[in-house]
Amino acid sequence: MINDPRKLNKAILERNGGAAPPTKAKPHRPNRAKHFQYITAFILCAMLSVFTTVTAQATDVYRNFAELQANEPETDYNIFATDRNTPVLILAPHGGSIEGGTSELARELSNDYSTYLFESLKTPNGFDLHITSTHFDEPTALGLVTRHQRVISLHGYSDSAEHIIVGGTDPIRGKVLVDRLNAAGFSAELVGEGHRFAGASAANIANKCVTGESLQLELSTGLRKSMFGTFSLAGRAGTETATFYKFTGLLSAFINESYNVGGNE
After folding, report:
1. What CATH number does the domain containing 228 carry?
2. 25, part of any domain
């Protein structure tokens, strides 16, 4: 028996032909904590996706236009559509008593541009006819959108401050518009994916146009009220203020220049 460790190592080397003895591989121990983090993150993402979809559906009475049409009398809503063969379509899917003021803005712009307007005439409970843009599938709207290169959609959101939030899938034109709005004395900001008014989903009707490029304009309640002398469903028409025409004039000038209306794209 060899008790001296140095002699023992020498004997082992001689027995192995001078090679060091093989080392015993350490058993692989999975990092359970890291695996748990990955699994947890995946589950949370999946839950968030489902929650977002369910929340959007839960806020609407109807999941699509077919359901609305089957349950609401035709006297409770109106569809206005005109195709002027312009490079851009003005889209207002929540007009009338849903997002007040967007009907009047769309009609004013319809004098020069292709326009689609869905408006609720129902009072009270006009918001019952709101179908979120990712579920809005009224056939006339889909037909117009898919025939146009780009879309500008008009919406309203609840806020007493006078402000405009610009989203959509065309941030280059969006920035130009925001800069012009701010320079003209309006308060405006450009938002991107992740914002609740981003309007960037492929399921959004505005993004089903030929190029998939859209701008989504969200006008606050405060701003929309400032555009009319009387802010009611029956009282808005004919009471448009200087702010109304300042906004539509600026938007028209922006459209004519940015979308080359009257020229060749």
Report:
1. 3.40.630.100
2. no
pLDDT digits (tens, 9 = 90+) for 144-193: 999 999 999 999 999 999 999 999 999 999 999 999 999 999 999 999 99
- 213-220 sheet: strands from edge to edge: 77-82, 114-120, 88-96, 150-157, 213-220, 164-168, 188-190
205 in a domain, yes or no? yes
Whether this model's pTM surpasses 0.90: no
Q: Is residue 57 part of a domain?
A: no
Whole domain around residue 238: which residue ranges? Answer: 65-258
Amino acid at 46: A
| Alpha-carbon radius of gyration of the chain | 30
Residue 87 lies inside a defined structural domain of this protein: yes
* Residue 106 backbone phi and psi in degrees, to 5: -65, -45
pLDDT in tens, 26-77: 555 556 655 556 555 544 444 434 333 333 445 899 999 999 999 999 999 9
Could you give the number of structural domains in the chain? 1
What pairs with residue 91 in β-bridges? Answer: 116, 153
- Taking each helix axis as running N to C, give the angle between helix 102-109 and helix 242-258, from 0 to 180 degrees, rounded to the nearest 10: 50
